[in-house]
Amino acid sequence: VQLQASGGGLVQAGGSLRLSCAASGRTFNNYYVMGWFRQAPGKEREFVAAVGWRGTSAYYADSLKDRFTISRDYAKNTVYLQMSSLKPEDTAVYYCAATTGWGNRLPSQYDYWGQGTQVTVSS
Q1: Alpha carbon 66 to chain centroid, angstroms
Q2: 6, β-bridge pairs
Q3: Concatenated DSSP letters for 15-47?
Q4: Residue 94, class by beta-carbon neighbours within 10 Å (0-12 exposed, 13-18 middle, 19+ buried)?
Q5: How far is CA 56 from CA 14, 23, 59, 77, in A?
Q6: Residue 5 near residue 18, CB atoms below 8 Å
Q7: The pLDDT value given to residue 29
Q8: CB of 93 within 8 A of CB of 117?
Q9: Long-range Cβ contacts of 87-92 (<8 Å, 24+ apart)
Q10: pLDDT, position 55
Q11: pLDDT digit of tens for each residue in the chain (123 aa)?
Q12: I want to staple 117 with a disulfide (CB 3.0 to 4.6 A). Which of 5, 24, 45, 73 is the partner?
């Protein structure tokens, strides 16, 4: 399973970005729950959001659910993270990951990881 994250960049506070994560590999199956995590310098990796294989159910970190939206294109094996009203504290490397367990929020519970994409929010 390979996960390729993209879409990061530099944005001003209050702006928006959409991250993408494309999944591939012959062992990948669309029953995986797909999630996003982020890691700021000097901090632990933290859960952002995850979406089920149908794309109709999702769960979020409580502090982010009002500004971030996760979605999934089943046909394209791609997961998106729409981020709005961005703040400087959202600056981090964002990772996509895959797990078989619904409700998983710990990095150790995720089996596959993408390489990360940098998001920098300027004040």
Answers
A1: 15
A2: 20
A3: --EEEEEEEE-TT--TTSEEEEEEE-TTS--EE
A4: buried
A5: 27, 18, 10, 14
A6: no
A7: 66
A8: yes
A9: 87/13, 87/121, 88/13, 88/121, 88/122, 88/123, 89/40, 89/121, 90/38, 90/119, 90/121, 91/40, 91/119, 91/120, 91/121, 92/38, 92/39, 92/40, 92/43, 92/118, 92/119
A10: 83
A11: 899 999 999 999 999 999 999 998 866 666 789 999 999 999 999 999 999 988 889 999 999 999 999 999 988 889 999 999 999 999 999 999 999 999 999 999 999 999 999 999 999
A12: 5
Q: Nearest 5°: phi and psi at 43?
A: -120, 165
Residue 19's Cβ-side half-sphere holds a number of Cα atoms within 13 Å equal to 34
| Distance, CA of 97 to CA of 58 (rounded, Å) | 14
4 vs 65: CA distance, rounded Å? 23
Rg (CA), the chain: 13
Which of 93, 102, 100, 123 has its CA nearest to residue 5? 93
Spatial separation of the C-alpha atoms in residues 34 and 101, rounded to whole Å: 10
